[in-house]
Amino acid sequence: MEGLISLVGAVVVMVILRDVFHTLWHPTRHGGLSRIVMTALWRLSSRASPRRRAAGVAGPLGMACVVAMWTCGVAVGWAVVYWPHMPEAFVFSSALEPTRHSRPVDALYISLVIVGTLGLGDIAPAEEWLRVVAPLESLVGFTLLTATVSWVLGIFPALARRRTLALRVCHLRRAGMTAGQLDSAAGAAVLGALAADVARVSVDFAQYPESYYFHDGTGDTSLALAIGYAAELAERGRQAKDPGAHIASAVLAAALDDLATVLDERFLHTGGARQQVLAAYERDHGGG
């Protein structure tokens, strides 16, 4: 029975580690526990605030909840591994009575001390296999901390690139480029640079899917509201007689198709064409 309980704890730890792996190092469109948490908070914020005031905190709050879930899951899982073997498999300080400090809460205390690398030493593993398992938990705790920092450092540059692209598109809209201006070498350069920026954002959505759940507001930094004009430029560029502009518009259209594919496969699931996907993206981010 003790072995079965410990096995349950090990399974909990493995589930959490698998989620960390697929969230940070091998993101897939199938999601995991972290994606469930982020999606649920995004949907709740959308329903709770029609004007999207709550949506602005959905992303940061979701990341905090995911990190808390990972930490608690690892701590609880290892506590379940330890608990069936208390008190005989542990050494207690002279100030503690082993039989009175062998409850589940004491196992959780041991786990939290180890995962946090605090090393208080009032309760320590005595059996050989536990003396190996306990340092492994410390390594997992340290890895989880560094992975979380890396996650945060990766998400926010991705958000900056997305908002920069939105601002660039808004600048082009305000500039009011005419068909004649697009049908030139300068127009080709503008469309080509725009296509490269769209491609970078597509990669960001694929590599950091949690960034989707960060709301950009309703101003010039909202890609969901601005991306439609980029599609309009791509269509206008197709009529250009300048070879460079014509090719650049085709590249921009392909980049927008790739962006729509990523958005639809991972978040929106409309199954529609590019125009439908971008419209759904706009609605989901507060565009009506």
Automatic annotation (TrEMBL):
The keyword DNA damage does not apply. Keywords: Membrane, Transmembrane, Transmembrane helix. The keyword Transmembrane applies. InterPro entries: K_chnl_dom. It comes from the Bacteria. Pfam families: Ion_trans_2. Residues 96-150 form the Potassium channel domain. The chain crosses the membrane at residues 6-25, 61-83, 139-159. This is Ion transport 2 domain protein. It comes from Streptomyces regalis. The lineage of its organism: Bacteria, Bacillati, Actinomycetota, Actinomycetes, Kitasatosporales.
